[in-house]
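Model the whole thing, not chain by chain.
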Amino acid sequence: MSRHALPLFDRALLGPALTSTFRKLDPRIQFRNPVMFVVYIGSLLTTGLWLQALGGHGEASAGFIGAITVWLWFTVLFANFAEALAEGRSRAQAASLRNAKKAVMVKKLREPHYGSPWTLIDADDLRKGDVVEVLAKEVIPCDGEVIEGAATVDESAITGESAPVIRESGGDFCSVTGGTTVMSDWIVVRCTADPGDSFLDRMIALVEGAKRRKTPNEIALTILLIALTAILLMATVTLLPYSIYAVNTAGVGHPVTITVLVALLVCLIPTTIGALLSAIGIAGMSRMLGANVVATSGRAVEAAGDIDVLLLDKTGTITLGNRQASTFIPASGVDEVELADAAQLASLADETPEGRSIVVLAKQRFSLRERDLESLRATFIPFSAQTRMSGVDLPGHDIRKGAADAIRRWIEAGGERWSDATTAAVNTVARRGSTPLVVAENVQGRPRVLGVVELKDVVKDGIKERFAQLRSMGIYTVMITGDNSLTAAAIAAEAGVDDYQAEATPETKLALIRKYQAEGRLVAMTGDGTNDAPALAQADVAVAMNSGTQAAREAGNMVDLDSNPTKLIEVVEVGKQMLMTRGSLTTFSIANDVAKYFAIIPAMFMTTYPQLAALNVMHLGSPESAILSAVIFNALIIVALIPLALKGVKFRALPAAVLLRKNLLVYGLGGIILPFIGIKAIDLVLNGLHLV
Amino acid sequence: MTLEFWALLVALLVGLGLAIKPLGLYMAAIAEGRLPRALLRFETRLFRLAGVDSSQEMGWGAYARALLLFNFLGVLAVYALQRLQGWLPLDPQQFGAVGPRSAFNTAISFVTNTNWQGYAGESTMGNLVQMAGLAVQNFLSAATGIAVAFALIRGFARRSTATIGNFWVDVGRITTYVLLPISFVIALVMVSQGVPQTFQPDQTVGLIAPVSYSIPKTDAQGSPLQDAKGAPVMMTSQATTQTLPMGPVASQEAIKELGTNGGGFYNANSAHPYENPNALTNYLEIFTLLLISAALTYTFGRMVGDTRQGWALLAAMALMFVVAAGAEAHFEQQGNPLLTRQHVTQQATALQSGGNMEGKETRFGIAGSAIFTVAATGTSTGAVNSMFDSNMPLGGMVPMVLMQLGEVAPGGVGTGLYGMLMVALMAVFIGGLMIGRTPEYLGKKIESYQMKMVAIGLLISPLLVLLGTAIAAVVPAGLAGLANPGAHGFSEMLYAYTSASNNNGSAFAGLSANTPFYNLTLGLVMWFGRFVSIVAALAIAGSMASKKRLAVSSGTMPTHGALFVSLLIGTVLLIAGLTFLPALALGPIVEHLTLWGAR
């Protein structure tokens, strides 16, 4: 899935990330992340207190305040670093895309047709609606639509796929992408985007984070984090009057210092998730791009995790796409070899995949070799829309293959009766989800049916297991096909989809999506043709094939550069993984507070209420080392979790209840226990080295 | 724990278990307006007389405005009744007008269902104020809470609609069809057990022997005087006669419990033999306290079309309740280690309930007091049948924590349900993310708007508690009211603001709260603690009603079953723990450690 996988801490990325880490200390940037902004302000405050202590008027020893201050700044820097690293990795991915964008001169046509007079202008000056002519070996300067001509185009700069594709005017293959190269022939292209707004530009902007806006779920989570921060701020600030009261009434000790209050606050507020939140979002987009899917917004990636109905095209997604001959079913009184021989003869000149597969099957089953049609004085009869048959005419011996009704007409035109046995054979094949192809011959004006060739739709390997996984995740799969109901049902059963829509048209697709949405389900689909556009626009997550038309790409909210319809499944996984990572780290972050309370509360009131030492369950060395250990743990855990934030929580296709239990155990319970161990360990080191 | 404790607890749970479904179904019918046609016709005419079109539903904004207006008028009415008491009838003891600040505090207190009492009922309020002012608000504040719960349930149950019900209709129906009939029956039972229901003036009777006692000396403002060491100055007094305060007690007692109000007719509240004469009335009062809050969970499950959802909420509430009751009984039954050192027997025997009996009534013992305490503080009822100030430190912490949990175990009438639903939204938000989906509850997606309202609704009370206590802990006016110095004094202040902000109303006692400072600050805390979260709940109701309901699949996070129940409890504990652990450490926890460490 991750073709663009980068090592987590690539050396080339570390340098720029470190620079960016410090550049992000700008308060205007810090302000965007409310949780970390509180840490930032706290660090400034303790820095001031430290300076005061250096001057000899400190509320505590300069060494202690200094140590706390340093680690608070580290907390801020670690958060910056996480974000910078995520951005750096995305930028590296974008850079490979950017290479495709070169300054080129283009031929802008005055009239929108081939051969019109042209002027040479800079590609950056092109505007939407301009018409350009692109010849072989030239780079297509803008996203657009082919209005004249046909050409092979190398799209490897965008898709990474080296085989050139055909782009031609009219139909479903008329859309071209800026940055791709014409290999042969010529095309006239009408630009459909202004410079800076092309597909490629948008993609780069999105990846670089320049246009990255917070997604709805990120905003909701941020609100939760702000609320928690606010209440913990209040809980910490009010400790000052409480401690003043306690000191006054107990008559011993001194009130808590501002330094300790800031340290407590920073430990309690959800800094772990606050620091990693934007890195998780960027990494999610990166992972999508790694799967060669470009999302037009982070919102789309998020929505992908919520999908509960997947509409999948049969051809190419569920089946391999080409029907292949699998069995010869001879009519009564006909030998199987005889049928194979006739079928092979009729298919020798047939270049369609179905035709080739008949020749291959005949060779496999009966070692029938290919023969030279010319030496047999045979004439090939190609398939035509009128006859709906193809075949071969030998001297005095005609052979035809085709759909049952077409062959029936041919037989009955020859004055023979169509047998019920043939109808039965045809139906049996159809019920199996295969396509029956009837083979008949006409020897000296006496036509007869030789038998039926079963053309099987081959279901992809492993697809059934994939659907079972999806089902356990609560995702309902629907197969969409133009086949008749009988065939569709058989393939649906073989592939293990939950439902199917046979004889589908763009209208039925749209209606189907609306029906599911009315039931309160979120629907994802893939599409490529212009006639898919309405359905794509209606679907909640719509992945357009890059090979598809401009209309389809505009209607979708993601574009799959590989044009691989199975990608939808990966898209759902990436979406889920991103949300899971956020949720798990939030839980972890909050669960950590338990241990921090146990470390700091006894320490901070030690002078007034030594009895509270009973709460020092970790037996930390001294009040100072306890507070410092908690702060250090809080900072280090951010660094420790950067890999998890960037790679994402491991995704497992499990039912929600099981997944929740697992993650609660790991991140909830783990989040409670781990800091007890971590803080104790840091405290041992601090005291062992006499650092406090 | 004693057999008595288990027997009472089991009897309580069984009684409630039997009542929940029928009452829940009945309330669902009322919330959905499924009434006999004749009654509907009659009711429509009555509403029309009041200028209310009962068929017209309201959006959440209109609902909230009507609710606020209604409650504001309630404050004015109760304030006016108290201030004009001298000119009004039914004041046989001639108490005269109540002071402005106390009247302000009491008016807000009863309208917000807090029923914090800075005054002593038998020496301040005549029968008219008790009945037309306080008892009426006991009904209306309870009806307001239930109405908000109805509105929020409708928000979850409906789809793609703009309205959440009609406030006037809701309050009218809840008062008339739910609160009045049940109160009526309970009041009659109370009367049968000896609770007064009379307009007779107070009776003065001679004592068999004169009694001397000491009381704290107070200044002109009513704050206790303190000597140089901060200890209260006491003076001796002698009595030869006793006044038996009379009044329409039973009718107020019933709604006091049923509406989780808690404002006692007498200062001693349910510890007073006329309010709570025996073990049977004690059981009945505890049962009534919990009745509607528990049954509303069934109403909820029924109305959203999946009773398992309601049972899950109830299970979380019940679990917290039972654990708290066990803890309370345990800490009190343990007794006082200082007394143990003096060789005082605190063991439970056939003749005594043992444990820490200071501030408790012998007719209730440890079990009857502990379970009452937990039921009252778990339901935002200010009623008490023992004095918490005399509890052991942790025995005093349990009721405090129950309130700090946000009153959800099981919470006040209506407030408990909408409080728990807000907790559920927060739990589902975090849990939902962990399974990789945009969080949803009952098929409704939780987005930033709902999160904002949940945050406001859940955090307003803790904010007010922390802030109020912080101010009281440093200003002289706040410190002046303390009866005890040290950590215990801190607990008294913390308790007062916790109780006011969560609209519980019970007092730790010890704190002299009838001072300008406490009357004013606690009054404000009660008002904002109640109505900010109500408006937030209604905003959630409105936004939820307008959403469509998503289908449930195996990819949906289940919101019933043991896992969700523990997630709910975890979220409740988390919010309260994060907020209050430091404050509790400085109050009851350090007091406990000092007491037991001194051994």
